[in-house]
Hints:
The structure holds 2 protein chains of 2 kinds. Chain A is mostly helical. Chain A contains 18 helices and 4 strands. Chain A is elongated and about 105 Å long. By secondary structure, chain B is of the alpha/beta class. Strand 4 of chain A pairs antiparallel with strand 2 of chain B.
Amino acid sequence: MTDAALPNSAVAPAAPAAPAAPARRDFGLRRRHAAERRFRFYGLAAIVIGLGFLAVLLFSIVSKGYTSFVQTSITVPVEFSADIIDKDNKRATDPRVLVSANYPVVARNAVARALGISPDDKAAMRDVAKFVSDGSRATLRQIVLADPSVVGTTRPVTLLATADIDSANKGQIDLSVPEAKRKVSDQQLAWLDQLRQQGAISTPFNWGLLTFGASSRPETAGLGVALIGSLYMMGIVLLCALPIGVAASIYLEEFARKNRFTDFIEVNINNLAAVPSIVFGLLGLAVFINFFGLPRSAPIVGGFVLTLMTLPTIIIATRAALRAVPPSIRSAALGIGASKMQMVFDHVLPLATPGILTGTIIGLARALGETAPLLLIGMVAFVADAPATPLDPATALPVQIYMWSNEAERAFVERTSGAIIVLLAFLALMNIAAILLRRRFERRW
Amino acid sequence: MKIAVFASAAVIALAAGLGAAAARDQIQVAGSSTVLPYAKIVAESFGEAFPDFKTPVVESGGSGAGIKQFCEGVGEDKIDIANSSRAMKKEELETCKANGVADVEEVKIGYDGIVFASDIAGPDFAFTPADLYKALAAKVVVDGKLVDNPYTKWSEVNAAFPAWDIAAYIPGEKHGTREVFETKLLDAGCDKDALKAAGVADADVAKTCVAVRKDGKAVDIDGDYTETLARIDSNKTGIGVFGLAFYENNADKLKVATVGGVAPSTETISSGEYPVSRPLFFYVKKAHIGVIPGLKEYVEFFLSDDMIGPDSPLAQYGLVAAPDAERDEIRAKFEAGTTM
């Protein structure tokens, strides 16, 4: 069949010489459909690329970091030998000897005995000493101080393994590298196997990662101080930025007359939202530390600096939320005799709350991930003791990540990724909270 | 607005009151990122050995920034110790004195070696300062004329080297390490007579010697050694500059090069055989000793052989201990309270 045999076929182009049939007008349908398909493809491609990068990022962090959540421990019977802890038998009169005793030697001897190594073999003892972390000093001291009667007795104690042994136990040591270049010798690997067969090696969940302070030893390094510091700072930001930001927005949005001056303020607020955070750090150093004399490295100063940084975000979000409340609500409230203040606090503000909370949480999440301003106020630091108040030195989560990423020891690589996972978990929690709050309270008109 | 002003004023006033009320009982240290790992080990051990004192807070940020903070003045809100990977400059000491920090005690803790290393799978390198100058200087003398550095492969610099493209990751200009790199290697390997013969003015010779090529063959690394290591991981024919401690911690990934025929190790550095090393310091504010609890004990603890001796934790980490006589001298100097 040919086209000529079907003169009325729909696909046949309308003949210009047939005015009776309505002319097929060119809507460019095919072109527009093609454009739409292209656009959809671009959009999809953009999302796929974005998700791809996210997946690569998450995969690289999780695959490197998940091992940091377990920590190799060695459980051996420890003899609290009076000869080492309290040579001169003075503990009854001078309890300080129990504090400064040489506990690492006690721990080393315990492992050596479990392996059946003679204490006279000096070279072997030196290698065995590399099994137990120096952090065992604190563990054993605690046991002895809590109950001095353990001196002279033997009891099983779980001790942290050193980072090198931990890596070896997790199979992270490349055994094809010549022994001299490795941090763990063949002999030590053999001992590790021996301990494993005795059932002395265990890999419990690494609570230390979340509770210990900073340390130069990977196995006793943790995020404890950083978590407390970040928590204090978030609290201070919330306490300072939310009232100030909401008050400023309500005034600007509901009470202030629109004139040059309020325009000027508005431009400035929008500007501040875009100022690099390091500028706030400089400001904080000059104002809070040098002028007001607040202590260096303290979360209170960090909190104030982050407050300054978060304020514009909160003000902008709050003003948008207030503006989204329909004017009819205001008119109705005023119409039944409410004062302006009653109108704002009883009617407008409750309706704007979900927007304000969302903005605040997003602002807080941004503040949680900030390091640059903290550098200048001394919070990028090695802090081992947990801060009791916001005036004591502390660090923050992202700062700890930065500091660990600069460490030379290999074991800090997995801890850096582990810390990133913890930070991401907190950020995800905050953002989920923001979404839930919005869902829960949002009203549509 | 008024509410906002009142609220912020109230919060700030409260904070200022709190701040003034709390006396500092914790040592504060800032400065060099090279000294930081050593200072951390000492601070941690100090906290464990002296339960009466709090563990000192050690900030990082670089020698220059640390000394600047240190020289801001005397008082509880100013730091007590500045770590530095170079000696304090005269101008810095003058700033210190102008700000009321009259008595500064200089304490040397030992030496740091600077090494060249490449990927562990690569061939051995044996550098001389002259090779490095030839490979990395901005301008070199060829046939009696000063020309832009024409060498693109290591084999062109010295026939004993492999035919790798030159790619060197060297410390950026803000690092204290850069100065050592320039004086101990570029300046030492630079043939000054040849430069003069090629028509460089006497006053410019020293500057020409240490100018590093900017054509991408020598890459300034402004971050830490971890960044240099990452660069070598991705470019297996790259050569990087590291601290001895960092190399020793990553000896399973890196192969170290000899300089002038000497392999870097704590022994060759403390004996002075290995040419590229530098002393590490910290500076103590004398006015704070006796005011900040534990400051004197901390410095004494730092200087004990348990910390900086040849068999100490710092030496295990990579610090090159000063010879016995020098350590005694350092301790005697601090004991006597000698200031700069």
